[in-house]
Amino acid sequence: MTPAKYGQDEERKQARLANKLHAAFEADPLEDGMHHKAEDIIKQALQSGEDPRILECLRDFSLDAEQPVFAASILRCLGRQEHLGTSSWRSALVRDALALDDVEIRDAAVQAAELWGDQDILPVLKSHSEPESWLRDYICEVIDDLEE
């Protein structure tokens, strides 16, 4: 038997958060430029201070290749959060999301990087070899914007 990544209490909190977020996305699809209830749920979870592992939990949701639509939606909402984690945490999240096979998750990672405007993410974007031409073009645009 392998040890659980989280204790039972943390697993319940993570499941409750996932359920709230799934319900929010099912009730109202995430749209560019429009505020979404999931942003408030994430912000509240971050501010509650109840679970010190909340960033790890949100990272897990964002990198869940088995639920790519959910993962991409979470990434897009995280991109709308100000002062999220540390610069190195954001860079690692974008790097790991770009390494996934799902193009929607990779696109959401680039959108988050663009919204954060964090120049520390530049090396991650520059080192990524993107197979999709439209996304490769978008990454180049974000790199140009961040370098200004």
Features:
148 residues, 8 helices, globular
**Order of SSEs, N→C?**
HHHHHHHH
Mean pLDDT: 90
Give the overall silhouette: globular
Distance between the termini: 52 Å
Specify Rg, calculated over alpha carbons. Answer: 15 Å
What is the β-strand count?
A: 0
Would you write up a description of this structure?
It is a single chain. This protein has 148 residues and is mostly helical. The chain has eight helices and no strands. Helix 3 packs across helix 4 (68-79), helix 4 runs parallel beside helix 6 and helix 6 runs parallel beside helix 8.
Set out the fold topology.
Blueprint: H1 8-27, H2 37-48, H3 54-62, H4 68-79, H5 87-98, H6 103-116, H7 122-127, H8 133-147
Write a brief structural summary:
By secondary structure, the protein is mainly α. It has helices at residues 8-27, 37-48, 54-62, 68-79, 87-98, 103-116, 122-127, 133-147.
